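pasting for ref
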Amino acid sequence: MGVMTIFARKPLEKSVLAQLTPIADRIAQCIQYNQKEELLRQQNKGEQLVVEITQRISQSVDLEEILKIIVTEVRQLLQSDRVLIYRLWPDGTGSGVEESVISSYPAVLGQIFPEEVFPKNCRQLYCQGQVRVISDVENSEVSPCMVEFLQQFAVKSKLVVPILQKQELWGLLIVHQCSGARYWQPLEISLLNQLATHAAIAIQQSEYQHLQQVATLNRLTQLANLQRSKNILIKSSSGRQKKKHLHR
C-alpha cells in the first residue's frame, strides 16, 4: 500500500520503468501460459468424457446412469456450481431429471415448473439448435420475471444447449454459475454441444430398447394366451370324449 502511494504521488523514473516492464511482460506471459494450459486440460478431459460416454452407450448402460455421469463430470470439469438435465414434457411443463449441484445452493431436482418457464417461442428457438449463453444474469437482456426466477436458485450465469430427438425438443443440458458472473469459452460451449448430442443418442437407444421390451412382452403375452386357449380346447375335447364313452 505504501509503495503504491509513493508511485501515485511521484512519477516513476525511466530507469525504474525499464526494470519493471520486463517483469510485467513475464507475468503476463505466465498468465497466458496458465490460461492455455487450463484450456488444454479442459479439452483433454472433455475428449475423455465424450469417449467414456460413447463407450457406455455402446455397452447399453441404462439411461439414468449415463445422464448422471454427464451432469457429475461436466460440473467437475467446468468447475461450475450446478449442471442440470431438464426434461420438457408434452403438456408444456418441465422438470429436472438429473442434477449435480454444490450443497450450498438450492436443488432444482424434484420440482415441476409451468410452461411459462420455457414458453413456446423459446422452445422453437431451441428446436433450431440455438445455444443460450448468459454471462451475467443481472446485466443482460433477460426479462425481470426470468431474473427473479433464476435468483430463486442463486443463478448468476448460465449456459444452455438443447437435447433434440427427431428434430423435437426433448430437453436441455444446463450449466449454472451461482458464485458470480462467468464468461463461457467456445471450448466449453462446444463440449456441452457434443455431450447433448450423445445424451440424445442414449435417450434414443433407451427408448428403442423400451419399445423392444414392450414388443417382446406383447408377443409372450399373445403366446401365453394362445397356449391357454389350446389347453381349454384340449380339456373341452377330452371332456366330450369321456361323455361319449360313458354313454356307450
